[in-house]
Write a structure and sequence with these properties.
binds adenosine-5'-triphosphate, alpha/beta, transmembrane transporter activity, MacB-like_ATP-bd, 4-stranded antiparallel β-sheet, ABC_transporter-like_CS, Rossmann fold, 6-stranded mixed β-sheet, 9 helices
Length: 264
Amino acid sequence: MAARPGRVRLVAMSEMMAPPPPTVAAAAGVIDARKSYGVGDAAVNALDGVDVRFEPGKFTAIMGPSGSGKSTLLHCLAGLDALTSGAVFIGETYLAELNDKELTELRRSQVGFVFQSFNLIPTLTAKENIVLPLALGGQEGDEAWIDRVIDTVGLRDRLSHRPSELSGGQQQRVAVARALATRPTIIFADEPTGNLDSNSGTEILQFMRDAVDEFGQTIVMVTHDPYAASYADRAVFLADGKVVGDLASPTRDTIMEQMASLGH
Ligand SMILES: Nc1ncnc2c1ncn2[C@@H]1O[C@H](COP(=O)(O)OP(=O)(O)OP(=O)(O)O)[C@@H](O)[C@H]1O
């Protein structure tokens, strides 16, 4: 049956008034993020109007020259530091709407963080370090999940060792397993391979890649290294506190080209 003219017109009107199509869902992101340190002549704009969102189940590398704002962005995204202005969200939650207790709880349950220097507790065994975020949250955790993480990370025969009895690569694998223990919405990693030899670094990168491919984990990693960034699905480039480039499916070559074009 042919639509009556009035109806056609109504549909057209409703289309005109319809909200814009939904953007791709994001696991986390920042909106017009600004962060300055110091005042007056000494002020530094570490973040100068950054808009970036991270798709769920993807591995993103954040690159840029020294001092471009990478660590500041990561720390603000993870709720470890606060923006001067703008907004940060993790999942459905804007961090500015949380009080200190709620922010601590969100960080514990929805955010994993991997540091360059591993940051393991020296007096705890590898297994105790891995389940620490669950213990702190008073949770038992999903034993089958922890088992799967431990198997994927390949540390079953090292679980009773303390960090000092493990190599750097093994310590970082414990740190990544710890970040995965709570099945967080997102894992942030700040130069996770910076203190590792190239073989151990490759193991960690492959492990993070597997966590994204097999577990659907979302990972955002700061790195200087084009080889490390080539494991990611996307590379976002910062310079002087601004996003200046965004590459899909980066390879070492496309990353080097982008860095050259930005004068890195
Ligand atoms: N706590 C602070 N106090 C003052 N200035 C700071 C502070 N933290 C960072 N900055 C400045 O903010 C800018 C961005 O620093 P940030 O550490 O985020 O850069 P980055 O890209 O991670 O550098 P790198 O690659 O060297 O680690 C730099 O100019 C830095 O000196």
